[in-house]
């Protein structure tokens, strides 16, 4: 078991007089994977000060050279990928296959932003003024706070860190208390790659104490957050008051829309992968299947067979398809929503219970669950559950499928299953979601492709891809009058 400390100014610093929080394996609660400090606001301030001291030199480091650090990190992550994946499974619970996928994605992200160091392009724009050279440059913002969730404890910190530092910012990362070791390994790797002290700082602790201290420190010039709407909207309003940049990626209630001409087998696999992969603990999880009546019975039948065959267990076991909920609170939330669905009159097709036999009694396991006959006014059709629960809504036709799909406060991902390209494009045009998949699952994303949602899912600019550069930089416009004649011309 590793005792983690805060990583500040390139060193592991033991905080004074704080308590440590256990990092428990959700598949086997007897195992304490690590412990991490519940830091105070004063310690958060030390981390910000380190980021502030490191900023001028890092800002002055040429961007291609900043990218070189990321190439070293990429190579180091490749060497340590199996260890990273195993730690991820032990502390978060997802299967080893899912963890390996997450690590590969994080490596791809680092590779992509390493290259962006050579591509921090601006524009030249013809001015109305004579003899003027007008151009734009992308500059860093300053020290930033990155606040990340437990469900992608390697990939999400990396996909905020990598663009942030490629663009010349320095950072303080506050990872989720439930998955501290993944962040610790990220700090190890940056330090093995000779990252300058203070470029990346990791502060452990509770959001209320540490997160607030970070956001209210005057040296922090921006925050990138992934997590709940409850916290994200608070961060957004604090950022507004403090006048700093803010990017929040929050909840989802993602639909898969299945029309009557869909390839049902494909749609079923997609629903299974989207709803039960990562135990439903991803913001892109498929939580509503909106199915046209004429194929609904057939879809449910196929789905039920597939779901009943899923093996729930410890993610380290290669036979496991679905790991545990991350902790007792999350498990209780899922079981509570299953109760709510039953009370609301939805029809429980399969699942619904905690698994507590000998093989499962040491973990937070819940049966993969399907509800049929769900309607849009039910809470299980509206609220993010973040567990292995899929609600099936039956609709008469494509037009009512669209209405149902959009009848939620969120707008992250949506999937459409049809073989008719014209129907697909009509839905693509009208669906309120930041990411739309035609004939592929709602989950996933790629390093070089923007990621994020509409409506209450997101505020601020998109993450990943070149879009992330827009969040992690300031844009400066320069007018250079090379004869001085512009002053005499007609200015508006
Ligand atoms: C994915 O679906 O692979 O917190 C990415 C989340 C998202 C990332 C999901 N920000 O689940």
Topology of this protein?
Layout: E1 2-3, E2 6-8, E3 11-13, E4 20-24, E5 32-37, H1 41-60, H2 63-79, H3 81-92, H4 96-116, E6 124-125, E7 132-140, E8 143-147, H5 155-166, E9 170-174, H6 180-192, E10 200-202, H7 207-215, E11 222-226, H8 229-242, E12 245-249, E13 254-258, H9 264-276, E14 286-292, H10 293-308, H11 328-344, E15 347-350, E16 369-372, H12 379-382, E17 389-395, H13 398-406, E18 410-411, E19 413-417, H14 421-430, E20 435-438, E21 454-455, E22 458-459, H15 467-472, E23 473-481
Parallel strand pairs: 1-5, 8-9, 8-11, 9-10, 11-12, 13-14, 13-19, 14-17, 16-17, 19-20
Antiparallel strand pairs: 2-3, 4-5, 6-7, 7-23, 12-22, 15-16, 18-21
How would you describe this structure to a colleague?
The chain is an alpha/beta fold. It has two domains: 271 residues, Aldehyde Dehydrogenase, Chain A, domain 1 (3-Layer(aba) Sandwich); 185 residues, Aldehyde Dehydrogenase, Chain A, domain 2 (3-Layer(aba) Sandwich). Helices cover 39% and strands 21% of the residues. It contains 15 helices and 23 strands. Strands 15-16-17-14-13-19-20 form a seven-stranded mixed β-sheet, sandwiched between helices. A six-stranded mixed β-sheet has the order 10-9-8-11-12-22, sandwiched between helices. Helix 12 links the parallel strand 16 and strand 17. Helix 3 crosses helix 4. It is globular. The termini are far apart. The mean pLDDT is 97. Bound molecules: 2-aminohexanedioic acid. 2-aminohexanedioic acid binds next to loops. The site of 2-aminohexanedioic acid has 12 residues, from loops.
